[in-house]
Amino acid sequence: MFGNAMSGFALSLLVLDYTNSNFQYALVIALFTVPNLVMPIFSGALLDRFSRKKMIYGLDFLSAALYCAMALIFASGRFYYWILLIYALTLGSIQSIYMVAYQSFYPLLISEGNFTKAYSISGVLETLTVFMVPISAFLYNKIGISPLLAINAVCFFIAAVMETQIRAEEKYIEAQKGTRTENKTSRQMLTDIKEGFRYMASETGLLAIGVYFMFSSFAGGASSVIVLPWFKGTFENGEYIYMTVFGFSVLGRAIGGMIHYRKKLPTEKKFSIAMFVYLAICFLEGGCLFMPLHVMRVMMFCSGILSVTSYTIRIAATQHYVPDEKKGRFNGAFNMINTAGSLSGELIAGALASLFSPRVVLAGFMLVNLLAGIFILGGKKKEVSAIYNVET
C-alpha cells in the first residue's frame, strides 16, 4: 500500500503534466477501473474453491515484476501514454482479483468478537499510507517517475515474501468440494457466479447495501477525476495545496480508526449512526470545493472521521454476516456493482467537467448519493439494521 500510494499519485501528476487534459486523466483511471466490472465475479467464484492465500502472494510477485518493467520503460525519460493505458488495464485486473482474495481471506484470520477491531486496524494502516503522497510529489518533481516505480516493485516483492509466511487453515476449500455440480471447471465457475448473484439477491439487506454503495462509488468516481485537476488548475502548485487539504482527511481517518479500536459503537444504534455518516459525507464532500481553504481542511477532517466509521461498520457487519464459503462470491458481486458505479462516475464526471464548473459537477454527484442513501437504505431500514446492528 505504501508503494502504491507513492507511485499512483506520481503517475496521476505525470498524466496531468503531459496531457493537460481532464479527459485523458479520467481515461487512465477508467481503464484501471474497468477490470473490476468482470474480474471480481470470476475470481470470487474461483476463490471460494481454491487457496486465497496463494492468489494473494502470487499476484504481488507478478505486480513486482510489472512495476520493475514499467520503471525500465520510463527510465528513458519519454512519456508513452499508450503504454500507460495498457498498464492501467493490466494492473487494474490484478488489483480487482487481489481485493476479492484479500476481502475473503482476511476475515478467516479474525477471532470471533474482534471484527470491528481488526477492520479498525486495517483502516488505520490503509490511511497511514496516504502520508506517502507528499513524499511522492516531492520525489516526482526531483527524480522523476522511473525511480518511484522501481521502489513500488521492491515494496510489492517484500509484501509477497511476507505473505508466503501467513499461517491459516482454508477449511472452506474442503467444505466446497461436496457442492460441485459440474464436471468442467469452466461450467462450475459459471454456476458459482450465478449463485453469488442469487445469494445477494436473496438477502434483501445485503442487496440494499450493495446498491447503495454503487451510488456511493458513483460519487466517489466523480471525486477521483475532479478534485486533483481542480486544485492543479486553480492554485499555483495546486498538488501541494491539495495534499494539505486532504491531509486533514487522512488525519481524521487515523484518529477515527484508533477511536473505533478502543471504543465499540452501541450495537443497537449502528444503522442509525451509519445513515447519519453516509448523508453527512455527501454534504461535506459536495460543498468542500466552494469553501475557503481553512474551512475545506476542517470539512475534510470531519469527513475522514466519518469515512472510517462508515467503512468499519459496513465491512465488519457484512463480512461477519456472510458465511466463509460464500465470501468470495459475495465480495466479487459486491465489488463488481461498486465498480460499475465508480466507472460510470469517472467517465461521466470527466466529460461533464470539461463543459461545466467541476465544483458544480461534484456537488451534483454528491446530491445523487444523498438521495440514494435516503431512499435505498432508508427504504430497507429493517433488513439493513438486521445486518448492521449485531455484535462484531
Descriptive labels:
Growth Hormone, Chain: A, 392 residues, mainly alpha, globular
Q: How would you characterize the overall build of this protein?
A:
With 392 residues, this protein is an all-alpha fold. It has one domain: MFS general substrate transporter like domains (Growth Hormone, Chain: A, Up-down Bundle), CATH 1.20.1250. Helices cover 80% and strands 0% of the residues. The protein contains 17 helices and no strands. Helix 5 packs antiparallel against helix 15 (327-352) and helix 11 runs antiparallel to helix 16 (358-377). It starts with a helix and ends with a helix.
Structural class: mainly alpha
Q: Using DSSP, what is the number of strands? A: 0
CATH homologous superfamily - what is it?
MFS general substrate transporter like domains
CATH T-level topology = Growth Hormone, Chain: A
| CATH class group | Mainly Alpha
Q: How are helices and strands ordered from N to C?
A: HHHHHHHHHHHHHHHHH
Radius of gyration: 21 Å
Q: What are the low-pLDDT stretches, counting only 5+ consecutive residues below 50?
A: none
From the 3D coordinates, which CATH architecture would you assign?
Up-down Bundle
Major sheet attributes: none
Query: Average pLDDT across residues?
Result: 82
Beta fraction: under 5%
Q: Counting H and I runs of at least 4 residues, what is the number of helices?
A: 17
Quickly count the domains.
1
